[in-house]
Structures are given as structure tokens and as C-alpha cells.
Design brief:
Blueprint: E1 2-5, H1 15-27, E2 33-34, H2 42-58, E3 64-68, H3 70-82, E4 85-89, E5 104-108, E6 113-117, H4 119-126, E7 139-144, H5 152-158, E8 163-167, H6 181-188
Parallel strand pairs: 1-2, 1-3, 3-4, 4-7, 7-8
Antiparallel strand pairs: 5-6
Protein name: Esterase YqiA
Pfam family, one: UPF0227
InterPro entries: AB_hydrolase_fold, UPF0227/Esterase_YqiA
Length: about 190
């Protein structure tokens, strides 16, 4: 099983999500691949991700995750809790510390959804934090130093013991992501 997890105010139709889906379809057509549109509510999003993960576990499928930004944060939690391997792309490290700037009305341009980020959402996100990475061998972390949304040095500090791939410049979307898909799939040990 491979679960692609998009970031905050993003979508399963984002460029990285679509590139990943197309690559998997071309190269691993028999792989159980999930790319859900996450609900804007944090607990509902994690409930959906947990349901997919637990079903794969029940079916004795190896667990694999690709997470971008907030999806990387969620992927860390799932890989630490359930096992499996995870590739994190410009992952959020402490997203709850950024909540003040996102409080209030939000708009997701991919889904055309209008919703509110409330103070309670900060605590909801914080409960999925992996303060310590106990299984560094489970993670490949892709970072670009030009990320304009998240400070890549926070991820470098948190995931220093994991396999890291750091490129200069770039941006939060991870410029050239599609060229990393071979490396990603090798790390995930796709069949």
C-alpha cells in the first residue's frame, strides 16, 4: 500500500499528487495506491488516514507513505505509530506553531471550499506530533533550501538522523519533484 498525503489547503489534484499518481500507474499498476482528498477538519483527516492505514495492515500489506508539507507531518505520525516507510517532502515540523497566522477564514483553491481554522485546531494538530523519531531508517526526507513557507532547517534538525536529500534553492512545492520519483520508489521498496 502507498498512501500519498497532501498538505494544508492543497489537494489530491495538486501537481505533486498528480505526478505521483501517474508515475505509480505507469510503473506499479498493481500497487494499492491511495490519494484521498483530506477533510479540512484535522481529526476527520487523521481518521480517514488511519482507516486506510489500518485496513492495509489488516490485509497484511506493507505500509508506505509520501507526505508533502502538513502531509509530511501526518506521514511521520503514521510511520512511527504503525510502521512502514515514509518519504517526506518539505515536511511541516511544528505546524501548530504556525496556527496564529492561519486562524480565521480559509479558502482551498483546489476544492473551492471555504472553512474556518479555529484555536481548537491547533491542539488537534499538536496531538499528532512525533517529538522524537525513534525509527530513522523508516524516513527519507526531501528538502529544498528555498522553501518560502517552511524553514527547512527545522526539518533538518528534527530528521537529522534520517536519510536526507537536500537541494539548494527550490521552493515549497519542491521544484523538480517528478525527477525524484525513482529515488522515492526505491526507498519505499515498491514491488
Amino acid at each position: 500500500m502507498l498512501l500519498y498525503i497532501h498538505g494544508f489547503n492543497s489537494s489530491n489534484r495538486s501537481e505533486k499528487a498528480v505526478q505521483t499518481a501517474q508515475y505509480i500507474q505507469r510503473n506499479y499498476p498493481d500497487l494499492s495506491f491511495y490519494q484521498p482528498q483530506l477533510p479540512s477538519d484535522v481529526d476527520e483527516a487523521m481518521a480517514l488516514l488511519t482507516q486506510i492505514t489500518e485496513k492495509a495492515l489488516a490485509d497484511n500489506q506493507p505500509l508506505r507513505f509520501i507526505g508533502s508539507s502538513l502531509g509530511g507531518y501526518f506521514s511521520s505520525y503514521l510511520a512511527e505509530k504503525y510502521g512502514g516507510k515514509a518519504v517526506l517532502v518539505n515536511p511541516a515540523v511544528n505546524p501548530y506553531d504556525l496556527f496564529e497566522e492561519f486562524l480565521g477564514p480559509q479558502y482551498n483553491p483546489y476544492t473551492d471550499e471555504h472553512y474556518q481554522v479555529l484555536p481548537k485546531d491547533r491542539n488537534a494538530v499538536a496531538q499528532y506530533d512525533t517529538h522524537v523519531i525513534y525509527h530513522p531508517d523508516r524516513f527519507l526526507v526531501l528538502l529544498q533550501t528555498g522553501d518560502e513557507v517552511l524553514d527547512y532547517r527545522l526539518a533538518l534538525q528534527k530528521y537529522h538522523c534520517c536519510e536526507l536529500y537536500i537541494e539548494p534553492n527550490g521552493d515549497h512545492s519542491f521544484v523538480g519533484y517528478e525527477q525524484q520519483l525513482d529515488k522515492i520508489c526505491r526507498f519505499l521498496q515498491l514491488p
